[in-house]
Write a structure and sequence with these properties.
Elements (H helix, E strand, L loop, with lengths): L2 E7 L1 E10 L2 E10 L2 H6 L5 E6 L1 H7 L4 H4 L4 E5 L3 H5 L2 H6 L6 H10 L3 E5 L18 H5 L2 E3 L5 E8 L1 E3 L16 E5 L1 E3 L4 E6 L5 E8 L2 E6 L10 H4 L2 H15 L3
Parallel strand pairs: 1-4, 1-5, 5-6, 6-14
Antiparallel strand pairs: 2-3, 7-11, 8-10, 9-12, 12-13, 13-14
Length: about 250
């Protein structure tokens, strides 16, 4: 039976203004950054359900029991505000569950959490993702910085392994280049598996927290930080499978 993975985030809506001389009009388009990730995991031991960012405000579970139906929860390019501000709280001033606290309790009780980098992961662009000093950060192997944590590497950056680990199983050869990542710091309880080559910045790290596990990949799962050379590389699929295998492995 396939294990169930909930991918939260990795979508956005863009608006454009088109000005043609005296006249102008506006358009809106919806985008997803999850397509390559979901396609790579087809016919694997993991069934991925995508909850886009706009749906997460209402649809992300409000109970621990709701979270525990998932073997792995992934937060990718979605800020803390979307999970904190349910429409009942934001629009109607009603009390609702603190879903960052629920994620903490989910991991503590034996769940598995992954955070993948992006403009609204970790601390994010202009510090807007706001996971620093939250209960989600408490279970991660890394700490978020207090400011805009994006590191753009238009010249390309690569992975440097710091120690052998199961997440590298069956991945051989040279790793493709990346175009950026979120800068973070290690928690004392975390285990550093890979850095961005030439820096001490964590790229891949893991942690066991109470009965559960967490893992971070501080670059993206898709463009622009992860180019086609990476998402079409055979190791792309294997990396995520290895991560899920470790996260869901229990003695």
């Amino acid at each position: 039976m396939q294990k169930q993975v909930l991918l939260v985030g990795e979508s956005w809506t863009s608006t454009s203004n088109h000005i043609k001389g005296f006249d102008q009009f506006s358009t809106a388009t919806w985008h997803t950054g999850a397509s390559d990730f979901i396609a790579a995991l087809k016919e694997s031991d993991y069934a991925v359900t995508h909850m886009p960012a706009h749906a997460a405000a209402t649809d992300f579970p409000l109970t621990l029991e709701g979270l525990q139906q998932w073997d792995v929860i992934i937060l990718s390019d979605i800020g803390a505000n979307t999970l904190l501000l349910h429409p009942d709280t934001w629009l109607k001033s009603r009390r609702t569950a603190n879903r960052l606290s629920l994620i903490h309790d989910y991991v503590a009780a034996g769940g598995s959490l992954m955070m993948i980098g992006g403009y609204f992961s970790f601390q994010g662009i202009n510090g807007g993702a706001r996971f620093r000093h939250t209960l989600v950060e408490k279970v991660l192997p890394v700490r978020c910085l207090a400011w805009d944590d994006r590191v753009e590497t238009p010249e390309g950056s690569t992975l440097e392994m710091t120690q052998p680990h199961a997440v590298f199983n069956n991945i051989s050869g040279e790793w493709p280049w990346m175009l950026g990542y979120n800068e973070v710091e290690m928690q004392p309880e975390g285990t550093l598996l890979a850095t961005v080559a030439g820096t001490a910045h964590p790229l891949l790290a893991v942690r066991e927290y109470e009965k559960g596990r967490s893992l971070v990949w501080t670059s993206d799962m898709s463009a622009h930080w992860l180019p086609q050379e990476f998402t079409q590389w055979p190791g792309y699929r294997q990396l995520w499978i290895n991560c899920f295998d470790w996260l869901t492995e229990r003695a």
